[in-house]
Amino acid sequence: MTDCENTQEQTPKQSPDHPPEQQEQSINLQRRALFKAVGGAAAVASGAALLPGCSEPKSRQAGDDLGFTEISHRLDFEHHLPDGYHADLLLRWGDPLDAFAGKFVPDRLDATEQARRFGYNNDFIAFMPLAPDAGPGEGDRHSLSRNSERGLLCVNHEYTQPHLMFSGYTEDSANRGTSHEHIAVEQQACGHSIVEIEKTANGWLPVTGSPYNRRLSLTTAMDIVGPAAGDQRLQTGADPSGTRVFGTVGNCAGGKTPWGTVLIAEEGFGGAFQGDPDNVADEVEARNHHAFGISTDNRNWGDYDRRFDISVEPNEPNRFGWMVEYDPYDPDSVPRKLTALGRFEHEGFTLVTKPGQPVVAYGGDDDEHQFVYRFVSSGIYRPGDSAHNRQLLTEGTLYAAKFNEDGQGEWLPLRFGHGPLTEEQGFRNQADVLIDCRRSAKLLGATPMDRPEDVETNPVNDCTYVMLTKNKKRKEGDEHTANPRARNTAGHVLEIVPPGRSGERDHASDSFHWNTFLLGGNPNAENPAERGAYGQQHPGNISANGWFANPDNVAFDQRGNMWIATDGCESFGFHDGLWAMATEGELRAAPKHFFGCPEGAEICGPEFTPDGKTLFVSVQHPADGDFSTFDKPMHRWPDNDPDLPPRPSVLAIRRKDGGLVGS
Ligand code: FEO
Ligand code: CA
Ligand code: CA
Question: What is the pTM of this model?
Fold first, then answer.
């Protein structure tokens, strides 16, 4: 799986050993990026053209509502919050979802037990309100509710780590030789959980035994729908129809729809498959499997379950790498893989829905030099017409983004017959274009990016933000104003500005403007090529703890403030966490540090309740690090109990006085 798994990198050197002329070129590129990043003041001073940003006059000072006391950069075995805040420990790996599962005893965990319990390595979180007057199967009524005291917490479980889940493994031995018994547990520990939760006088608690509680795993039956459904490349011995598949894997981030469904992404699915792509007779398929990292070195799931061995089922990987949509309000609903949204290492897809207009969804392919995508539905969104709306993501056009150097951009359609997407290039039909999205987007001339993670639209200013986590593979000379740094260790954030005014922007337009919103990294780094850039102020005005690196997930609060979750700050000497900032006004892109993880963990999820008074976060892979194992873990967060290993967990963060989180 991609290095969403916590990669322990070295702190970047301040003095790279490239020749002076390359340094000069790099510095110039950096300056150009800085002018765009810092907007008005620097742009005017330099005489550079000021591109349209997302800022519009506001009655209040944007960002001045982020009044919390900032926490410090640090690295220890605890989580950290500002004074005046409390975190409920809401769900941990192994917590029971049904009323009879009982206390978690790791030594007794088998596949049947795991299927009744919260899964491993929690990632994306969707809070779906429960209307007090509706029951299971009444998604239409629930989805209109803004109840912030009771709801369903819908949580992805991205991947498993046997060496931290079971006794007797090192990281190497777990990678190559996990037992069949343990693989069966892993296949139940990944996927997704739906858990009813409620806010009580004692804080947030799971409702164990709720009829809504459900697990999706690698044995859950799912339909395949959309343009690629039934294609010969999706057919296997077990499913000659190419329309029915067991399970989902690599579930990283996702999205929500206003018609009461949840979208979950299949990201690092290649790691589940075993075998040598060069031994697959069809060269299109061999190239495809290589592109997603399938190899003989991968985990040994194929020994246990032959569909994960590509020498037995070469088409099975084509049934993964999609977005999945399901209805959390109906425990019997069958999830659907949406082929119209393309196949790649999906970070997630988030929606812009405006009545009477097509639905627009934005997503990223989280790998080095991969692309940012947008989907525009064929049909229009009709509020309240759930039967109609539930078909919107099955038919439409997928586009890849081209970021031009001058701050303009265009969306390139992945449509069979368009441009190079023809039989001459080996495409038989639209299914080929969607199954091989990466190749399609590259042929069209889309811009290779620095690992696109979440792409999400700020509901207040109607602009769209792209988290680019890092790209150490970008070489000197390959810089581009949209990806301005070679060996980008710290990542950056871009702002997409569709045409039109806030609230009326045309997200379906084929053109846009873009700005560099911020560059991750230390604003005081000696090497300009590694220097972070934040806000419109002098870097000295960013506090010592206000900078961060490796943006991954993002959420917006009801005031339009941006909350960025990171994955990789330990390489810079401190914990991953959350940083909050305004997207407009004088404090635009000036972050404040709100939350810090225990060592080894990344933070995912961030999700607010509709009233803004609770913020849910996922703490994924705590205590992950060199030599840390189930038997000898780095620490045992969150239980700190010698009988329990470290456990990935979801926290519910509240202000002690009941106020808005962050204010
Ligand atoms: Fe699983 Fe893209 O982080
Ligand atoms: Ca990540
Ligand atoms: Ca992620």
Answer: 0.92
